[in-house]
Amino acid sequence: MKRRKSICVGLALTAALLFIIGRLAPPVSFILNLSSLVFVGMAFLVWLTGPFESRFMKNIAKAIWISAGVFIIIGLVSFIWIESLIFGGSRGNPTDSADVLVVLGAGLNGDRPSAVLRSRLDVTYDYMASHPEAVAVLTGSQGSNEAVTEASAMEKYLLEKGIDKSRLYLEEEAHNTAQNIKFSVALMEKLGLEGEVMVVSSEFHLYRAEKIFGRFGIEAYSLPAPTPDIGLVPLNCYVREYCSVVVMGLKDFMGYDE
User: Fold this and answer.
1) Within this chain, do residues 64 and 122 fall inside the same structural domain, yes or no?
2) Does 110 share its domain with 166?
3) Between vectors from CA 150 to CA 144 and to CA 153, what angle results, nearest 5°?
């Protein structure tokens, strides 16, 4: 019994430590928070198999362990499958004749683009600089820890690099990727922006972005922006994207498009 208690306490403390570190290290917070939940679950299962000695409770504990094993196997299979789709889409499907770029927002540091967003904007600038007829829709609202909207910060960044303001259109209401694309499509229709559309986003984001554009009957091209090679940022991004794709699939199944 003492050994089980020690194991439970150790697992619970590990979960707490991972959660605290996650709060202090935003770039890897998602991975650490997810790991902390796993350790909490393990602590619960260890505790459940200890205090109860009756045959009935042992059978319940055994069923939970088996269910957990099946869940883990299903999770691993789905993770490998979905990540293969994400990596497959990371090469993008760029075109040299896009008329409208839809640049998806990402986080800000105050009023300045994060490393991930700067990468997307640098790719956007390079394309617009070499294609003077192309225009861009910059999409993203203001987060709770952001000083301005992502779209306005993106505009400022591109203006500072020399892109003319007349070529930039802002969509400042979207709070997630589905809304980014839905509201951008609505804005393009309102402004009469026509021609070939190309979405600009991080490599890991393109598979999902193209799928969402397909909801609106748009076969969008895609231009990949390199994921910043900073610490565990790439790993964190790809793991989070797996969860986002799963959520997208569930929303599609339930007929919810945002």
Assistant:
1) no
2) yes
3) 120
Report which of 227, 255, 258, 220 is spatially closest to residue 241, judged by C-alpha positions: 227
**CATH number of domain containing 215:** 3.40.50.620
DSSP state string for 122-178: HHHHHHHHH-TT-EEEEE----TTBSS-HHHHHHHHHHHTT--GGGEEEE----SHH
Condensed to tens digits (0 to 9), the pLDDT of residues 230-255 reads: 877 788 888 888 888 888 887 777 76
Geometric angle at alpha carbon 220, from 219 and 222, rounded to 5°? 140
The pLDDT of residue 21 is: 67
Q: Which domain holds residue 164?
A: 100-230
Kindly report whether the global pTM for this prediction surpasses the value 0.85: no
**Strand 100-104 to 197-202 pairing:** parallel
As beta bridge partners, residue 202 has 225
DSSP string of 211-233, one letter each residue: HHHHHTT---EEEEEPPP--TTH
User: What angle in degrees, to the nearest 10, is found between the helix axes of 206-215 and 177-191?
Assistant: 50
Closest by Cα among 171, 220, 169, 168 to 196: 220
39 or 107: which leads in pLDDT: 107
Does the pLDDT value for residue 53 go beyond 60? no
CB 167 within 8 A of CB 183: no
- Spell out the residues 6+ positions from residue 106 whose beta carbon is closer than 8 angstroms to its own: 113, 114, 116, 117, 120, 140, 150, 202
Token pair belonging to 143? 């987060």
